[in-house]
Amino acid sequence: MTVTATETIRKEIYVDASPETAFRVFTEQIADWWPLQKYGLFLEQTAGVAFEDRDGWKLIETSKDGRSSVWGEVLAYEFASRLRLTWHPGKNVEEMPTEVELTFSADGNGTTVVLEHRGWEQMPEETRGARSGYDAGWDEVLARYRAAS
Amino acid sequence: MAYAQALQALGDPTRRAVLEQLRDGPRAVGEIAADLPVSRPAVSQHLRVLKEAGLVTERQNGTRRLYRVDPDGLADLREYLEGFWAEALASFKAAAEKEQRRNK
């Protein structure tokens, strides 16, 4: 028997929009399309969801009575190309260490969007540690990449 | 979000190791503990969390209590996440295409 639940979930969709538009709608207009009534933490009490800069960029849902819940923290942001974030709605990352990566690729007149939701076992070691290690870890990787290219 | 409990249960590395021990078939607590650097009471505690998350079931076999992976639990989790993302992305696609038409 294989424990299939821990394998990466991969979804690919074609969007009849430019990568710029697709990326902007995903990041800046997420409250307009995310099915919050069904897939939100506050359900009918929800006041929306947005990427916000609160001690680092996070995806945060807020409720009508002023509560807020972090769904994930942005690990990588490349406009019109890639977005990577930790994914742990209502939990902290140690409790639910999964991450989501989206890539946006120009495809004819539109964009192919690939989403991967990875489990714990695929999490790179550097993102498994304490939250404080994240940004530093990623900056370091990028710095090495720049130095190498 | 309904799947959170199962994901949270799997978030603990020792608990994943316990679940791994059940991959090849049902086992008793003592057998699982013997193969892991964890005490028997700790294994019992992890099994309880896995059971509450719907990932493991137990049954009495004579004097032995055997634990096994609940394939329905794992399939449910998987199915939930697949459906969750399919729906979210379909909604995103509609919004992005609407925005593109608006900008033309």
Derived structural class of chain A: alpha+beta
User: How confident is the prediction overall: mean pLDDT of chain A?
Assistant: 80
- Globally, the shape of chain B reads elongated
End-to-end gap of chain B = 37 Å
* Total count of helical runs of at least 4 residues of chain B: 5
Largest sheet of chain B: 3 strands, antiparallel
Radius of gyration of chain A: 16 Å
Helix content of chain B: 55-70%
Number of strands of chain A: 7
Q: Which two chains share the most extensive interface? A: A-B, 42 and 38 residues
If strands are numbered along the chain, what order do they take across the biggest sheet of chain B? 1-3-2
Beta fraction of the residues of chain A? 35-45%
Low-confidence stretches of chain A: 1-5, 122-149
Write the H/E string of chain A, N to C.
Answer: EHHHEEEEEEH
Task: Characterize the structure shown.
The complex is a heterodimer of chains A (149) and B (104). Chain A is an alpha+beta fold and 149 residues long. In chain A, 23% of the residues lie in helices and 39% in strands. Chain A is built from four helices and seven strands, in the order βαααββββββα. Chain A has helices at residues 19-28, 30-33, 36-39, 132-148, and strands at residues 9-15, 46-53, 57-63, 68-78, 82-87, 98-107, 110-118. Chain A has a seven-stranded antiparallel beta sheet with strand order 1-7-6-5-4-3-2, sandwiched between helices. In chain A, a hairpin with a 3-residue loop joins β4 (68-78) and β5. The radius of gyration of chain A is 16 Å and the shape is globular. The radius of gyration of chain B is 20 Å and the shape is elongated. In chain B, α2 (13-20) packs across α4. Chain B starts with a helix and ends with a helix. Chain B has a three-stranded antiparallel beta sheet. Helices cover 64% and strands 13% of the residues of chain B. The model of chain B has no long low-confidence stretch (mean pLDDT 87). With 104 residues, chain B is α+β, with helices and mostly antiparallel strands. The A-B interface holds A 1-6, 9, 11, 13-18, 21-22, 24-26, 29, 32-35, 38-39, 41, 89-91, 94-98, 111, 113, 115, 117, 119-121 and B 1, 4, 6-8, 10-11, 13, 16, 19-20, 23-24, 69, 71, 74-75, 77-78, 81-82, 84-97, 99-100, 103.
